From TrEMBL:
This is Alcohol dehydrogenase 6. Residues 203-330 form the Alcohol dehydrogenase-like C-terminal domain. Pfam families: ADH_N (PF08240), ADH_zinc_N (PF00107). InterPro entries: ADH-like_C, ADH-like_N, ADH_Zn_CS, GroES-like_sf, NAD(P)-bd_dom_sf. Keywords: Metal-binding, NAD, Oxidoreductase, Zinc. Alcohol dehydrogenase. Catalyzes the NAD-dependent oxidation of primary alcohols to the corresponding aldehydes. Oxidizes secondary alcohols to the corresponding ketones. PROSITE patterns: ADH_ZINC. GO terms for cellular component: cytosol. Residues 33-161 form the Alcohol dehydrogenase-like N-terminal domain. GO terms for molecular function: alcohol dehydrogenase (NAD+) activity; S-(hydroxymethyl)glutathione dehydrogenase [NAD(P)+] activity; zinc ion binding.
């Protein structure tokens, strides 16, 4: 079957700081080891917003199509693709898993680097993207570009999932929920009967709260400056919530008082270096553990050396420590088997042409 160029709609970022424009684009057929997908649902992640409007990201080329948290259906496959067929339900992955490199063969990490350098700057293996608009190449954010009705990704950056999974829910496993949940259960290795603090109660933070609850933590303290989020945090397992604005003392001192010297585990889910420091300092000396899940590419974190010398641990997590290709289908199974919440994360369902409204909701915190 001869693969053809597909004409469809995309939300295009022509330049930094400007709202997205709904444009007619052309999506080329998949090349060797590539798969073309019809995107059915996409989440809007803070990293997409930050790249367009914020300061915390490295420069990547424009114009580009954002979006990296999605689910869809395989439309066609390129040469040498063996693991996917048209009609398969799939989740595209900004973190690949080739299954062959030193990192994929190690249980210590999920950081596969297949096509990594190219995908970070918005192109696929051959150095070009598959999306164009008005005769101009359009870059694919993190090699994905899910704010487009169709996209093309490498076959090592795609998870095949069960055919009965609702794509408008499991799309959240493409980034935020997997990252926060894994930060607690994989990277943090939260233990039963422990005390935890989760900083930031957006999707990543709520997923971290859920991970702490699944791990059997006895105290899970949500921390956010927006008290409207506290009710939702309780649904996911927070035992109490604290608003730093309600206290004159730094939040790490407030938490230390609440927990007789600090929490066992702190999870930072904001991406703000000052909050990372506060999270680290809110843990108990001797064995406190802080996991950074919030994303920034340019920030510097301040660590008082004595606080780490006394026995605290500081670690980062990327995509929650999950081996993407093999673990995302298992997370889908957990959701289908009611072991994992997803529906509760969803506040709004909007069509593609309302993407700027979605960005506004994201930024206002009404999400």
């Amino acid at each position: 079957l001869e693969s053809v160029v597909i004409k469809c709609k995309a939300a295009l970022a022509w330049e930094p700081g400007k709202p997205l424009a709904i444009e007619d684009v052309e999506v080329d057929p998949p090349k060797v080891h590539e798969v073309r997908i019809k995107i059915v649902a996409t989440g809007v992640c803070h990293t997409d917003w930050e790249y367009l409007y914020g300061q915390g990201m490295k420069v990547r080329p424009f114009p580009l199509v954002l979006g990296h948290e999605a689910a869809g259906v395989v439309e066609s496959v390129g040469p040498e693709v063996t693991k996917f067929s048209p009609g398969d339900k799939v989740i595209p992955l900004f973190l690949p898993q080739c299954g062959e490199c030193e990192r994929c063969l190690s249980p210590k990490t999920n950081h596969c680097r297949k096509n990594w350098a190219n995908m970070q700057v918005g192109v696929l293996a051959d150095g070009t993207s598959r999306i164009s608009c008005k005769g101009q190449q359009v870059y694919q954010f993190l090699g994905i570009s899910s704010f487009c009705q169709y996209t093309v990704v490498p076959d090592t950056s795609l998870a095949k999932i069960r055919c009965d999974a609702p794509l408008d829910k499991v799309c959240l496993l493409g980034c935020g929920v997997s990252t926060g949940y894994g930060a607690a259960v994989n990277t943090g290795k939260v233990k039963k009967q422990s005390s935890c603090a989760v900083f930031g109660l957006g999707a990543v933070g709520l997923a971290a709260v859920m991970g702490c609850q699944v791990a059997g933590a006895k105290r899970i303290i949500g921390v956010d400056i927006n008290p409207d989020k506290f009710e939702k945090a309780a649904v996911f397992g927070a035992t109490e919530c604290v608003n730093p604005k309600d206290h004159k003392k730094p939040i790490q001192e407030v938490l230390a008082e609440m927990t007789d010297g600090g929490v066992d585990y702190a999870l930072e889910c904001v991406g703000d270096p000052a909050i990372m420091t506060a999270a680290f300092e809110s843990t108990k000396d001797a064995w406190g553990s802080c996991v950074i899940a919030g994303w920034t590419e340019t920030g510097m974190m301040n660590v008082v050396v004595e606080k780490i010398l006394m026995g605290r641990t500081l670690s980062g997590t990327y995509f929650g420590g999950w081996k993407s290709v093999e673990d995302v289908p298992k997370l889908v199974d957990d959701y289908m088997n009611k072991k994992l919440k997803l529906d509760e994360f969803i506040t709004h369902n909007l069509p593609l042409d309302q993407i700027n409204v979605a960005f506004g909701l994201l930024k206002s915190g009404n999400r």
